[in-house]
């Protein structure tokens, strides 16, 4: 069964360091999403891509976060510099175009900032 | 006020019980209503979704939407220990963006 792949699964870093997360969506899914889920809360959308283009990044803290999907397939989310409040689960999801109801989530990357 | 709210629980029930999970929302423009299940250290997985008001059944799961009261429910019949997870309700807003509730943690004890 096709799945969304993410790596690393866990990341521990010190504040002010740079971190990067990688996501490989389900083959054929043109729409890719990055969410942040703080412990005990629901996921919140950071950025949405349609192919290689950003559709919505209104909730992305652009002073420190960046996201790219250069070839319209896999994607990278970067934080530089990391802050203590960035500790969270970072989830990637993908869907078929115009099928935003049925999003398939990866296992996530658990980030701890010390 | 958050757009989508859930009681965080935990909700503890014995195996075989009927479980009722609830969610309220504030944006009357929501049209699609989803339930996701999230096991510990895993990503959410879509259980089912409904469009507008009414009921939808899928095996042991029934989703119910009451738009007049902005209330969403998920019922689980014959609950099993494998149903122990966090259940997230979510809605789609006018911008086609998923808005999640905080989730309710369910524990089904053998």
Query: DSSP strand (E) fraction of chain A?
Result: over 45%
Q: Could you describe the largest sheet of chain A, including whether it forms a barrel? A: 7 strands, mixed
Name the shape of chain B in a single word.
globular
- Which strand-content bin applies to the residues of chain B? over 45%
- Based on CA atoms alone, the radius of gyration of chain A comes out at 13 Å
| Spatial separation of the terminal alpha carbons of chain B | 37 Å
Task: Encode the helix/strand succession of chain B as letters.
Answer: EEEEEEEEEEE
Describe the protein's architecture and organization:
The model of chain A has no long low-confidence stretch (mean pLDDT 94). In chain A, strands 2, 4, 5, 6, 9, 10 and 11 form a seven-stranded mixed beta sheet that branches. Chain A is globular. With 114 residues, chain A is mainly β. Chain A has no helices and eleven strands. Chain A has strands spanning 5-7, 10-13, 19-24, 31-37, 44-50, 53-56, 65-68, 75-79, 88-95, 104-105, 109-113. In chain B, 32% of the residues are buried. In chain B, the strands form two sheets. In chain B, strands 2, 4, 5, 9, 10 and 11 form a six-stranded mixed beta sheet that branches. In chain B, strands 1-3-8-7-6 form a five-stranded antiparallel beta sheet, with no helix packed on it. Chain B has no helices and eleven strands. With 110 residues, chain B is mostly beta strands. The radius of gyration of chain B is 13 Å and the shape is globular. Chain B has strands at residues 4-5, 11-14, 19-25, 32-38, 45-51, 54-58, 61-66, 71-76, 85-92, 98-100, 104-109. The interface between A and B is medium-sized, with 21 and 22 residues.
